[in-house]
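Proteins fold reproducibly. Look at a concrete instance:
___
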Amino acid sequence: MEQLVLTAGVVREDEGYVARLGGLELVGSGESIQQAQDDLVDKLRDWIEIHEADETLEEALGEAGFPNVDEDTEIQLEFTGTVLECPDVNG
């Protein structure tokens, strides 16, 4: 079975944490790192379910830069180990 490993990162923002999954433009948020990660996992599951129901999952992943995915591909989500500080754009 083929595997597709998606990598997400977490950044600290003003009042919490934001987990971002590049390529798919999915974002999770929460007051803690774990809450942000859990929120992103839920959003990814929902995204996959919607595309599976529409039979567009392989196409959507291909358009996001993940080609050669088929119905037998196992999708995994991993988080980088570093929490990045969001730069202060207000100076």
